[in-house]
Prior knowledge:
129 residues, alpha+beta, 6-stranded mixed beta sheet, 3-stranded antiparallel beta sheet, 9 strands, 30% helix
Amino acid sequence: MAKWTIYDYADPEIGNPMHTWSESLQKKERAKLNSRIDALAMHGTDLIPGLVAPTGTASIFKLKIHGNVQLRPMLCEGPGRNEAAFTFLLGAIEVSSKYDPPGAPEVAAGLRENLIRNPKWRRIHERVA
């Protein structure tokens, strides 16, 4: 049983960036992503060290998924206090130590601020098979 709740950021105007990004991935990449998200839900902050890594932008983390494509979805804890939850803000990849989309952690920080102002702008994570 999951110990942590996993959410997606869902802006009424732009939709769910994480879901849209996940749909663009190849089947093998989506399988790796789903496996990591399942592990995150089960273990939260006790996940293997380094798999949820800081980005250098305050309160924004990246979930590291290795493969031919280095998946780096951006997420934050909560953002509610005393809440065992993570919220995926947007999907990204890392190529030669650069993010695609460029500035992904900063964009994610802006989405997190939107979410703090509009707490209803998240929903339970939408898994893409």
